[in-house]
Write a structure and sequence with these properties.
It is a single chain. With about 270 residues, the protein is mainly β. Helices cover about 5% and strands about 50% of the residues. It folds into 2 domains: about 140 residues, Immunoglobulin-like; about 100 residues, Sandwich (Immunoglobulin-like). The two termini are about 40 Å apart.
Length: about 270
Amino acid sequence: MMKRIFFLVFLMLQFCFLHAGIVVLNGLTHAYKVENGKVYKGKIAIENTGNKPQNVKLFLQDFTYQSDGSISYTSLHTNNRTNGDWIKLNTNLVTLKGKEKTEVYYEITVPNQPANPGSYWSVVIVEPVEDIKPSDDKVGVNITSIVRYAIQIITDFETEKANPNLKFESVKIEKEDGKQMAKIAIVNNGNLYCKPTATIEIYNRKTGERLGSYTSIAMGLLPQTSKSFHIDISKVPAAQYSAVIIATDEDENAFALNVELEVKND
């Protein structure tokens, strides 16, 4: 039995190593400020770091996410702010030799007049494709795993007439990997993509003395989507506090919320 388990694990690791060879070299978010009627060009750089040839397909999908961790990849036109129809790839399938790099080019043709100012987006999915081989007579279970990349193509139109509008959905204090984490769910109810950070300023409830300020990493937030911003507050002693939570985007637009917090030992 142990030999069979070891052999199965070996096959799984061998398969994952094969797929881990495909990497995207030039980032997973491509953002453009666009004007109506104009054409913009971009590229997706891909490398096969493995030794075996690999087929890779590329296709467009709509995309959204929420603060509970859910991510949805759906067919085009599911999102009313999709720009999928604006984007044309120069190919939908490439074959890379071992250690080979390539670039897939795309064009964005902005309509003469998009419906409303703000951000429009979709994603290009980059997915390794396995050659289909006839099955043999051996009895067993085939376990497969595919690592896909999703490259966001974000186009911002008439940004002077659009704004993010950040709101706080929830604030939780939870222990994670031995650390006390403030988990702040923020939704963008506006019509413009932004990249905010969340900051929590903690005060002694009785004296009003400020005990410290802690900040999350910046994360992109598309319109009508939400994310959970995590802040390590392990240095804060267990007690009840007053706090101010501030979400600030890259243009220094700030949104604040006063809350009461309880930090526990367990």
